Amino acid sequence: MRIANALLFAKKEFVLGPRALMFVFLIILPLAITLVVRLVFGDLLLTPPRLGIVDEGDSVLVSMASEMDALETNLYTSADALRDAVAAGDEDAGLVLQPEFDARVRSGERPMLQLLLNGETSETDQTVLLVTVVDLVRDVAGSPAPLTVDTVIVDDGPAVPIVDRIVPLLVLLGIAFAAIFLPASTIVQEREARTLHAVLATPVQVSEVMLGKGIAGFALAFGMGALTLVLNGITGQTLSLVAVLVVASVMSVEVGLLLGAAVSHMAALFSVWKAGGIVLFAPAILFLFPGAPEWIARIFPTYYFLGPLYEIVVNGSTLGSQVIDLAVAVAICAALVPAVHLLSRRMESRLALG
Amino acid sequence: MSASPDDSGRFSRNALRAAIVRKDLLLFSRDWLFIALTILSMTMFVTLYYLLPARVEPGFELGVRGSRLEPILEELAGGEEEGIPLRFFETTDSLREAVASAELDVGIDFSDDLLTAVAAGEQVTVTVFARSTLPPEYRGAVSTMVREIAFAVAGHELPVTEPDEETVLVGRSTTPVPIRDRMRPLYAFMVLVMEAIGLATLISSEVQQKTMTALLATPARVSDILLSKGVLGTLFAFGEAALVLLLVRGYGSDPAIVLVALLLGAVLVTGIAMIAGAAGKDLIGTMLLGMLILIPLVVPAFAVLFPGSAAVWMRAIPSYGLVATVLDSSVYGVGWAGVLPYLAMLAGWCVVSAFVGVVVLKRRVVEL
């Protein structure tokens, strides 16, 4: 096999690719999805517990609550409107402050705390809201806390927004389209159009064509992955992220080449893509829900690069702490090499037979 | 096709349509790869459902070091069965190490003389170990909990009267809904989307291979071909989505509501499949165009994973009626009256989608 020929084919993919609608779509689609997902779900993942308040008097608790980072506060004009908002889940909790609330608290009258909690809010958030409201009432009462709290951050990880849990999914979208779908579909297309048959009449080997498509897919996938990270404001730990993206792009390209060599027509490729999509994307979807057991995600091969990516981006972990998972990913990549080689040879034989 | 003419030599329209449907079914049934992968993808959806937790997991676990504080802490954390789970540690170092190694997100280190110091009115300092990834609201809540513990230890009662739990909890459900149940509309819609893309590519290949033109050389009219494709696509998408929802126990108290919603959803995506199948220049173009149209339609299915009212713009997305109906019926047990507005909205979008799909595909077939 001559690497120079493979590089020539890779260059051809890049020169001719942008003329094809598919190529443009494959680049635009993940970027458009990134934009939509950030716009639509960014707020949902970022929002702290929401507290709606009706102030029937003139309580200082309202301004105290609105200054807290731990809460998002919204004011309502009537108790009924607040109850509806809490019942619909638009607020996690609702607090009605009766007239003279502050004065009654300070006088030791112990007025009824008119607090509503949305039943669907997680029990953790319900506890957080309840404790926070009680603390605010203590402040209104003017009771000085009998102790001070010293919070110590015990790791040196960056304070990463929770919304970044979605980043592995977005990166995978970019990589999967560029590294799996692009090489697979162009190989199948060239088989259907019989241009690969024509290659057999030249000194060029089919394996060189495959490698060329693999190189092009890898470069595009790596670029798309890096671009997605930059678009999401993830720029730290460059070397670690580069290592993960390289492994992710290699594994994805190998899957793409396998598909291209194994599948004989486009309709079949769509069927495989349809069924295989869940295998590819399941770990990234599971990362959205911290409560989902990690062992489920570990069933899927893409976990072994998505897991390190998640840990680095979201938890600020170092590459060293992710070396085992990444080593498994590298092992999967190595195991795929003979499979790609075998299927390429089989495809070449079939092409030769016409 | 095996439609036979009547005595006058004419072909019944229904027999012609049935023959076209049979032909397509035969083609599908011979495609073992398609059948196997369809079954595999449905199995994976169902498996994923049962693998996901059946209860809502807590946001964080709290580590605590401090003697004689267990009863107060457990009451403040919301009890043993619910609320924030607690783990007790013997030493400051073991607690700090547990947080530093990400075993826990946060830990409270109460000094040994806390009880006596607070009772004596002395100011003490309590250390909270936290990870940088712990959201600020949780960090603040833990500090607040520490202060409340001190108030409780010092014997300061709450300056307000607490209402009972029944008065406090409101909403359509008084317990958090597990994410796997909220995902039911997503499963249903993803199955519909996959089938729509499959149908779009089938239509596209028939347009390119001119099979549709060949059919026009028979007594079949364009309308017969379009109706047959529409019926087949709808039945396929509906059948698969209905089966997946059955397996994930997604029918709630009134299965007819979910079935009607799925049928309308299947019509909606079939119309879109016709548009993509007719407009795409080749198979890849068709698939990508189909995805471009269908991806925004998946947004409501993701949005309902989070409690709260949908934004107005999200209600305008054609798939919202389907998602809201499946969620309300299967999770909250809402009846016909409650879901009727959603179904009416969905039916309206179905008419639009089917009309545009038929017009676009008819023009393409006639052009050929």
> Low-confidence parts of chain B lasting 5 or more residues at pLDDT below 50?
none
Radius of gyration of chain B: 30 Å
- Structural class estimated from helices and strands of chain A: alpha/beta
Largest sheet of chain A: 4 strands, mixed
Helix content of chain A: 55-70%
Structural class of chain B: mainly alpha
- CA-based shape of chain A: elongated
**Individual helix count of chain A:** 14
Strand order, main sheet of chain B: write it out: 2-1-3-4
Task: Report how far apart the termini of chain A are.
Answer: 22 Å
Strand content of chain A: 5-15%
Total E-strand runs of chain B: 5
Key features of this structure:
heterodimer; A: 354 residues; alpha/beta; four-stranded mixed sheet; B: 368 residues; mainly alpha
Outline of this structure?
The complex is a heterodimer of chains A (354) and B (368). With 354 residues, chain A is α/β, with parallel strands linked by helices.
Task: Provide a descriptive summary of the structure in words.
The complex is a heterodimer of chains A (354) and B (368). Chain A is built from 14 helices and 5 strands. Chain A has helices at 3-16, 21-46, 61-66, 79-88, 101-106, 123-141, 167-192, 195-199, 206-231, 238-262, 266-286, 294-298, 303-314, 323-352, and strands at 50-55, 72-76, 93-97, 114-118, 147-153. Chain B is mainly alpha-helical. Chain B has helices spanning 13-30, 32-51, 70-76, 92-100, 114-119, 136-154, 165-168, 179-182, 184-208, 211-216, 222-247, 255-279, 283-303, 312-315, 320-332, 336-367; strands at residues 62-65, 86-89, 106-109, 124-130, 169-170. In chain B, helix 3 links the parallel strand 1 (62-65) and strand 2 (86-89). The mean pLDDT of chain B is 82. At the A-B interface, helix 2, helix 4, strand 4, helix 6 and strand 5 of A face helix 2, helix 4, strand 4, helix 6 and strand 5 of B. Strand 4 (114-118) of chain A pairs parallel with strand 5 of chain B, so a sheet runs across the interface.
Secondary-structure blueprint:
The complex is a heterodimer of chains A (354) and B (368).
Chain A: H1 3-16, H2 21-46, E1 50-55, H3 61-66, E2 72-76, H4 79-88, E3 93-97, H5 101-106, E4 114-118, H6 123-141, E5 147-153, H7 167-192, H8 195-199, H9 206-231, H10 238-262, H11 266-286, H12 294-298, H13 303-314, H14 323-352
Parallel strand pairs in A: 1-2, 1-3
Antiparallel strand pairs in A: 3-4
Chain B: H1 13-30, H2 32-51, E1 62-65, H3 70-76, E2 86-89, H4 92-100, E3 106-109, H5 114-119, E4 124-130, H6 136-154, H7 165-168, E5 169-170, H8 179-182, H9 184-208, H10 211-216, H11 222-247, H12 255-279, H13 283-303, H14 312-315, H15 320-332, H16 336-367
Parallel strand pairs in B: 1-2, 1-3
Antiparallel strand pairs in B: 3-4
Helix pairs in contact in B: 1-11, 9-11, 9-12, 9-13, 9-15, 11-12, 11-16, 12-13, 12-15, 12-16, 15-16
